[in-house]
Amino acid sequence: xxxxxxxxxxxxxxxxxxxxxxxxxxxxxxxxxxxxxxxxxxxxxxxxxxxxxxxxxxxxxxxxxxxxxxxxxxxxxxxxxxxxxxxxxxxxxxxxxxxxxxxxxxxxxxxxxxxxxxxxxxxxxxxxxxxxxxxxxxxxxxxxxxxxxxxxxxxxxxxxxxxxxxxxxxxxxxxxxxxxxxxxxxxxxxxxxxxxxxxxxxxxxxxxxxxxxxxxxxxxxxxxxxxxxxxxxxxxxxxxxxxxxxxxxxxxxxxxxxxxxxxxxxxxxxxxxxxxxxxxxxxxxxxxxxxxxxxxxxxxxxxxxxxxxxxxxxxxxxxxxxxxxxxxxxxxxxxxxxxxxxxxxxxxxxxxxxxxxxxxxxxxxxxxxxxxxxxxxxxxxxxxxxxxxxxxxxxxxxxxxxxxxxxxxxxxxxxxxxxxxxxxxxxxxxxxxxxxxxxxxxxxxxxxxxxxxxxxxxxxxxxxxxxxxxxxxxxxxxxxxxxxxxxxxxxxxxxxxxxxxxxxxxxxx
Length: 509
Ligand code: AMP
Ligand code: ZN
Known about the structure:
Blueprint: E1 5-8, E2 13-16, E3 24-29, H1 40-58, E4 62-67, H2 85-93, H3 97-114, H4 129-143, E5 144-147, E6 150-153, E7 188-193, E8 211-213, H5 215-227, E9 231-237, H6 244-256, H7 263-266, E10 268-274, E11 277-279, E12 282-283, H8 294-299, H9 304-312, E13 320-321, H10 324-355, H11 362-365, H12 380-398, H13 404-416, H14 422-436, H15 445-448, H16 459-474, H17 478-490, E14 493-496, E15 504-507
Parallel strand pairs: 3-4, 3-9, 9-10, 11-13
Antiparallel strand pairs: 1-2, 5-6, 6-7, 7-8, 11-12, 14-15
Helix pairs in contact: 2-3, 5-6, 9-10, 10-14, 12-13, 12-14, 13-14, 16-17
The chain binds adenosine monophosphate and zinc ion.
């Protein structure tokens, strides 16, 4: 297998991945702030991190992957201004901040499952507050100063603050400094002391008064606690390259007492950032534009994995523009692949049944993925196909900074091969899907027929009406057949005569 090359945002260069510990890969991904539902832009960040994790596993590394849950401390502005997001949501919904966190974390995890994202460790920030206080105490003397509103990190005490963002640390910075008394505009809160006379739902005692940790601290603390210092790869959305990750790096450098300049000093060997999901109005965000959740897509009749495929169709470092047409195209592509796999399975079963005793029922129960995909069980034809077809080009593009759009074309290519057995093709697709995560071997046509939330007619009613229409057409009773069709249209059912995918009908929204 060729080497894995990844683009390191810190050096702005493509680099060959070399694990810090032989045979192991340790990855940290900034997780969600659980004060609201995640929008599909957020979920793009986790599809990307999942793909990275799957590639590392494909290459044989023992993967430890952490995606933290921010359940405290994130303000409505990155610049230490505004309200605490959790407290604000709790007040608005008349619930406790703890209930809010629990509810939205569960919703986030359900979305991960629907997108077939592996289940990494999900530590919560609130479980690490003591460790955060210890960290702040350790760096306080050399790197921090106290104001009435809390403990602040003096960014001029580390050598290359903002290297990741390539930011000008003073005047040119887009972050406006709203906190009086800060020494540098880009200094940030390590600890936010609760103002006198106020109480927060989530607050802890500290040497700097009762209060809550600053948001950036949790990721330094949790990544070091769970993965060590330094660890291999840190990921997040591209917005984190500007503020959150430079602040993490500054904290790491302070804690490790290093001079900077070296990637390992930053805390991670490689920093990777996915670009945004945008729509015509710009970056998808929780505060502007249409708030599209995964559930919104499902309500409109799309399978969640169509969205995963849509993400994979773009390189993670490119912007991806969301449109319903684009999602529809991805959905059709997914259907095509699933139907291709289904017909390979049928062909394979036919071949197996022709070659075994007719009263042996075992082939009917056979399920993919088959054991021969790995190791000794691999049949000759599978091994040859793998070498000849396919996984070579698939790996070549994938290991070139995760070029998933190109990797996907290898799947199409496998289908187009004329001289390979269905068994061999299925084995290669199984292997590819271990990285793509589209459940290609288990998804069925029925799974992909998602019922839009607004639909009033049942599947059984549609099937009955279509059978009646077929009879009418056979009897050349076109008046009846047209009436049935119009009736179905009125109920939101589009009849798809001659659909090359044989889909017959779909429910419109
Ligand atoms: P947040 O909960 O706001 O911290 O966001 C969770 C993750 O989603 C972070 O890694 C963000 O960088 C990422 N993110 C936010 N908006 C988008 C977007 N429109 N497209 C892709 N990633 C995003
Ligand atoms: Zn983070």
